[in-house]
Amino acid sequence: MKKFVQFCRECVGELGKVVWPSRAEAVASVKVVIVSTIVVALILGLLDLLFTEGLRLIF
Question: In angstroms, rounded to a whole number, what is the distance separating the alpha carbons of residues 17 and 54?
């Protein structure tokens, strides 16, 4: 049990050293992820459409 308590104390100590992002930084990061996801989805959708139509022409 002593080791578990020590582990928990060390975890709390390490979390105190973490430099957490500000709200503005977090919001900016979320925007980048959402926009990137949409762009990649559009590209993959376009490629899927092109390959599907290409295969329809062949077969």
Answer: 55
